[in-house]
Predict the structure of Biosynthetic peptidoglycan transglycosylase.
Amino acid sequence: MIGQLLRWCVRIFLGAIVLSILLVILFRFVPLPGSMVMLERKVVAIMDREPMALQYHWTPWRSLSDQAKLAVIAAEDQKFPYHYGFDLDQVYAAIQAWKQGKSLRGASTISQQTAKNVFLWSDRSWLRKGLEVWFTLLIELIWPKERILEVYLNVVEWDRGVFGLEAAAQHYYGIGASQVTADQAALLAAILPNPRGWSPTAPSARVAQRSAWVRQQMRQLGGTRFLQRL
């Protein structure tokens, strides 16, 4: 019986690996119908008896504002074109800070955030972090950088029930994803650490300060020409 149980465990494990690879290959070419974080938010809203309508509109790369592409890189992961999914310097710094008794701060790249948002859940645990590493490696291996950023901009959360740049642009500014300006993009990128608590249209002093920093970083990166490095 123990031998049979072990064989079944191995089969399930191998099946999960194959399924994950097939999903990543599929989403390399097919627009995503949604994400696991969207599903999680919807389920939690139902359980809490707080109805929530999801706002999500898949938008292809060419219809996403270049300013928004640059802004999220400037705000979240300036080494995005150069790393293979992980910013080892940031990981090392986070570990050293933790060893000194400080809270364990995030060191997630855009690739890691994309892997988590699409395939996993938002809870912090060692299991989820381990799966995040696996899916990050897969998308870095199978997807080009443009696809990773395209998916990220389509699934990232920008308010309660608002996912992706198209939905966020309509929700906050009444425009399409392709029309987002540099200033609007900087404000949208500025609220990513707390999208359900901060607003780009009624920015707090903290958001305004962070937005100004993002705009400065966008200029220092060389403007939208930086996207040619992807």
User: Anything to note?
Assistant: The chain has a mean pLDDT of 92. The first helix runs from residue 2 to 27. The domain at 31-229 is CATH 1.10.3810.10 (Penicillin binding protein transpeptidase fold). The chain has one domain: 31-229.
